Fold:
Amino acid sequence: MFTEEDRERWGSDLDADTPDIVIAGPDWILAVEAKMFHNPSAASLSSQMSRQSKVLSRWIDVLGLPEERVTHVLLLPKALAAASAGHGWPLVTWEEVLETYRVVGPRYWANVLATALADYDALVSTGPVFGQNKDDRLTGAEIVDLHAEGDLPYSSVGRSGGLSGSTFTTDVTSGTWRGRSYEVRVGPPPNANWFSVADFIAATA
Structure:
């Protein structure tokens, strides 16, 4: 039975993200975040990996694993890897996987992957409608703390319905804004779902 103690031990209190693939042995973990046709920005990709790192750190602590035995990598098409250069995370490309396993892997799998990579330019997304305006994600508490310290590089916050919308109003009245993750961006509000950091600070004060 999964108890409340188990939930706390394994990280239900984390504002985090889980990797797509986790392979584990007695004293090691390989965690992989894989993308194929989704086309996130470099900032969004880095933010997602940072949130996943919180989960891996918890696993290291709970399982008592040596950090050098835990690897966290990105699996990306070569084109996306080039566009996201500078993310700083260990990287494997799908092209490298295909080249390595083309002979020993199942022929159908290799052919499907080869076709997907050949058609990448035609199939890759231009960026999802939801999330295309963000540069990062931060919790409400992080926004307030970084703003107070003068270290917040973002000027706008996103929430469905905007500043006066029912979702953000509920966040504020319930107090859940502190732990909720919000989209943030460097530039001015791009549409009615966005508002200034100054308005966010004032609303949550």
User: Anything to note?
Assistant: The first strand starts at residue 21 and ends at 24. The mean pLDDT is 87. The longest helix spans residues 42-63.
